[in-house]
Specification:
With about 160 residues, the protein is an all-alpha fold. Helix content is about 95%, strand content about 0%. α1 packs antiparallel against α2. The longest helix has about 80 residues. The relative contact order is 0.09. Keywords: Coiled coil.
Length: about 160
């Protein structure tokens, strides 16, 4: 009876070990799935934010460029009028010179705005690259953890 009881006990332990190993395997698989989902979600969110910011900056840049072109056309028109209007009265020349100065000021402001937009775009690009590097680093750590976990499972199986 003792021999049979010992066999049942060993058999029960083996089944418990198998059950624990199977449970660990399921947990590892679930962890792998969750990690992959979180990584993909983080990548997608970073991509989405970057694209939205990029579209916003592109729209602003396009608006500023259109405004700059309109100012430039007005500036050219004023120069043409000035060159033709030398024989007209001084009052008109003063008015045109004032408008010309306003247009130059607006042109300068527009150029400044464009420079700021380009700077913001470069900043966003560097942030995106940094977040991508961080995500890659995190992914490498997860892979290393999974590798270590796999080695622990192999060692447990060898100990059986």
């Amino acid at each position: 009876m003792n021999v049979r009881h010992g066999f049942v006990r060993r058999n029960t332990r083996a089944r418990e070990k198998e059950g624990h190993l199977a449970h660990l395997q399921r947990l590892e698989e679930e962890l792998d799935v969750q990690v992959a989902q979180v990584e993909e979600q983080a990548r997608e969110e970073a991509r989405s934010r970057f694209e939205a910011e990029k579209r916003n900056l592109e729209d602003r840049l396009e608006t500023e460029t259109a405004e700059l072109q309109a100012h430039l056309r007005l500036f050219q028109k004023m120069n043409l009028i000035l060159s033709r209007g030398k024989e007209k009265g001084q009052d008109q020349q003063i008015e045109i010179a004032t408008e010309n100065l306003e247009l130059r000021t607006a042109l300068s402001e527009t150029r400044t705005n464009m420079a700021m937009l380009r700077s913001e775009m470069a900043h966003l690009r560097s942030e995106y690259e940094e977040k991508t590097r961080m995500l890659d680093s995190q992914q490498e750590r997860v892979v290393a953890y999974m590798h270590q976990n796999s080695q622990v499972h192999q060692q447990l199986q060898m100990l059986q």
